[in-house]
Amino acid sequence: MPLNENSIELPPVPEFELTALDVEKGEPVHPLDRLQIMTADTWEVFTLELVSHLGKDYESVTRCAGAGDKGRDVIGRYADGWDNYQCKHYKDKLSVANVVAELGKLVYYTWKEHYTLPRQYRFVSPKGCSSDCIDMLANKARIKTEIVGRWDKACRDKITKTESIPLEGALLEYVNSIDFSFVDEMSSQDLIDIHALTPYHTTRFGVYHLKRPQAKKPGSSAVGENEKVYINALLDAFSDADGAEYSFESLMDTEYKDDLERARINFFSAESLEVFSRDAFPAGCYESLKGECHEGIHSVVRKKFDDGYQRFLEVSTHCVKIPYDAHPLRHFLQTSDRKGLCHQLVNDQKFEWIKKR
């Protein structure tokens, strides 16, 4: 072999089990890396999504876009005040000068009484703050010192395009009266952790982080209010098959006991998936899943059967074959969910096991 040449070794075997999702999408972009490739406009929308979760405590959440924002970006308003989330999308980490420039606007416009001082002022940046900036934000007294010391260079001629604003007289007194303890940053990891609690997270970052909880098991005797419609429909289907009258209690001594117990397990599984979807996916996601299920079984439901029990069995067999290939929840769907969706549709009175005569 010639000098300075080495044989090529095969890459190492993956340390994880490949799934269909891995093959379709390739190696996922880590959320912290994805923050770095967002555009400035996307970054502000991302912050709006994040604050919408915090918005449980706000009366409204709004975005101030453009040159006339007066130092405000994403605002959370509550009864007697507001919080500001200042979005800074720079190629480098935020410096002390960057922070002073923004706080200079806050000082000026609150002094002019265009708005009041916020309860919280948080810098939101994909790359976070420089070490010096972090030190300043940790030592709140230093913030005021930096604003005063850097005013002429960072603020005086940069707050508005129409006038130079010297830091003197009443304005200087105003700066010295402010306690800047309400100013801080949100780290990149904090942003990811909070955003993961929103229904927007899967759309923006994928489903890498989601772990569906175990479904609750139905009680052996108690029937919930949300179960009565589909259970009564099943009892009617069983009665339609052999002419006997059944109640929940009397059915426990018949051949239909297993059908009912499996139906309840399936229903609880689907209910669990619905809660999971509501917490982690955009609004309407689960309803669209039920819509696909209804479409997939509609022609089977419409067929002629000797009785409602036969219709129930045929639909239960068919529903597990519906692919749901394009649906966001498909990687979380289990066989029990697929059957449970049918019972939810009966609950919604979309169809019955016994056709109305």
Please give the structural blueprint.
Elements (H helix, E strand, L loop, with lengths): L19 H6 L5 H6 L3 H15 L5 E4 L10 E5 L2 E7 L8 H16 L8 E5 L6 H8 L1 H15 L14 H9 L5 E4 L1 H8 L5 H5 L22 H15 L14 H24 L4 H17 L6 H12 L15 H13 L10
Parallel strand pairs: 3-4, 4-5
Antiparallel strand pairs: 1-2, 2-3
How would you describe what is shown here?
The chain is α/β, with parallel strands linked by helices. The protein contains 14 helices and five strands. The protein has a five-stranded mixed β-sheet. Strand 2 and strand 3 (81-87) form a beta hairpin. The chain is elongated. The mean pLDDT is 88.
Key structural traits:
357 residues, 14 helices, 5-stranded mixed sheet
What is the mean predicted local confidence, pLDDT? 88
Number of structural units classed as domains: 2
Query: Within the largest sheet, what's the order of strands?
Result: 1-2-3-4-5
Give the helix tally: 14
- Please tell me what the overall shape is: elongated
| Share of helical residues | 40-55%
Strand coverage percent: 5-15%
- Class based on secondary structure composition and strand pairing: alpha/beta
